[in-house]
Specification:
The protein is an alpha+beta fold. The chain contains 11 helices and 10 strands. The longest helix has about 35 residues. The structure holds flavin-adenine dinucleotide (FAD).
């Protein structure tokens, strides 16, 4: 059992930290206030290999593993959760679905463009009437000769407006419940595909979250991703990896909030001393740091399992559940340590508090994570 990152992993962490401090930190509040999705950051993310973290070099990827991936998402989110969530949706949802279940032709066509940042990936499972119960998908894909014709809409799609390559789930056989759902690759510019409403969000406001509308959208049969009827099942495997990235997102935001609170507690004086001298504040800091470390270790454990190609359903959900709820608690305490100054936008903790909440919702709510974990526990022979 090894608890230390390797030298190479430390270098990755350091380089992403430097990048985030230099290229993201100066703009965080401006992007948040104007809800600006910084598409201009893509070439810089690509230069560092962050648009193709998990993909073999043969497809233009960086060929890294899940521990490096978690480290990267954590470091980006320590500065801005919006960038963390965007890099996560691109890598572990859209691109990874193509890498894991695509044909060689699909991988050759899409992965190099996604990995090198030429194209931005989006992944749409959620619909207005099908959130936690994704088996209630309404979007239809009807076979017509050499094409499928897609009709319906996806909601809350990260990169719904800016995405170039979409992996979208649709029903191919309504009689088969979730075994009748399939995945499709849809390219931007395909007639009938368009972005709908862009969401005005509580947090992660610089990430693009939009509706995706499919109106008689005709795509070649070659764009079926995986086998017909296996789209929903394949999504579950993709989410096992995706939830590691949401856990890392949560750890990163908590780390950012904690560091701000630690700094502030040393500077702020009341009753003639730094507030960090008060045991009440020290206990908060101790609890925050301990919980962050526990969440990070759960995240690394799930990442290590994924690297070994072992099933990580329970471990990914445990990491996501604990890290996300921890992140909200830590951001809350970070505001408390700042007092009134935590409630205003001059200090970063107000934004961490708003941003952290997404981690308890995206890629399955806390309630759904508990269901997944309980199901795995009850299946075990212990
Ligand atoms: C910023 C953002 C980005 C997102 N990005 C994407 C994306 O890129 N792609 C994508 O496909 N989706 C995306 N989502 C959607 C996200 O995954 C869903 O919002 C989430 O799965 C919950 O679905 P819902 O919002 O419909 O809530 P609902 O499913 O309606 O849930 C409402 C409440 O009921 C609870 N609940 C539901 N069922 C049960 C149950 N069986 N037992 C106990 N409690 C239950 C939930 O936990 C929740 O508290 C994103 C969402 C947001 C906000």
């Amino acid at each position: 059992m090894e608890f230390e990152l390797t030298e190479e992993q430390k270098q990755v962490k350091e380089s992403v930290r430097e990048f985030a401090e230099a290229e993201i930190a100066p703009h965080v509040m401006e992007w948040d206030e104007s809800q600006h999705f910084p598409i201009e950051l893509q070439p810089k993310l690509a230069e560092l290999g962050l648009t193709g973290v998990l993909f073999p070099e043969a497809y233009g990827g960086a060929g890294m593993g899940y521990v490096e991936y978690a480290t990267i998402i954590e470091e980006l989110s320590r500065v801005d959760g919006s960038i963390g969530i965007s890099v996560a949706a691109h890598n572990s949802l859209c691109s990874n679905h193509i890498l894991t279940f695509g044909t060689e032709a699909q991988k050759a066509r899409y992965l190099p463009k996604l990995a090198t940042g030429e194209c931005l990936g989006a992944w749409g499972l959620t619909e207005p009437e099908a959130g936690s119960d994704a088996s209630g998908t309404q979007t239809m894909a009807v076979r017509d000769g050499d094409s499928y014709v897609l009709n319906g809409s996806k909601t809350f799609t990260t990169h719904g407006t800016y995405g170039d390559v979409f992996v979208l789930m649709a029903v191919t056989d309504r009689t088969k419940d979730n075994r009748g759902i399939s995945a499709f690759i849809v390219e931007k510019g395909t007639p009938g595909l368009r972005a709908g409403k862009k969401e005005n969000k509580l947090g992660c406001r610089a990430s693009d979250t939009s509706e995706v509308i499919l109106d008689n959208c005709r795509i070649p049969i070659g764009n079926l991703l995986g086998k017909e009827g296996e789209g929903f099942i394949n999504c579950l495997e993709i989410l096992d990896g995706g939830r590691i990235s949401i856990a890392a997102l949560a750890v990163g935001m908590a780390q950012g909030a904690f560091e701000a609170a630690l700094r502030y507690s040393r500077q702020r004086k009341q009753f003639g001393q730094s507030i960090s001298e008060f045991q009440a504040i020290q206990f908060k800091l101790a609890d925050m740091a301990t919980e962050i470390e526990a969440a990070r270790l759960l995240t690394y454990r799930a990442a290590a399992l994924k690297n070994q190609k072992k099933r990580s359903t329970k471990e990914s959900s445990m990491a996501k559940l604990y890290a996300s709820e921890m992140s909200v608690r830590v951001a809350n305490e970070a505001i408390q340590i700042h007092g009134g100054y935590g409630y205003v936008k001059e200090y970063p903790v107000e934004k961490f508090y708003r941003d952290a909440k997404i981690s308890t919702i995206g890629e399955g709510t806390s309630e759904i994570q508990r269901l997944v974990i309980a199901r795995q526990l009850l299946r075990s022979t212990v």
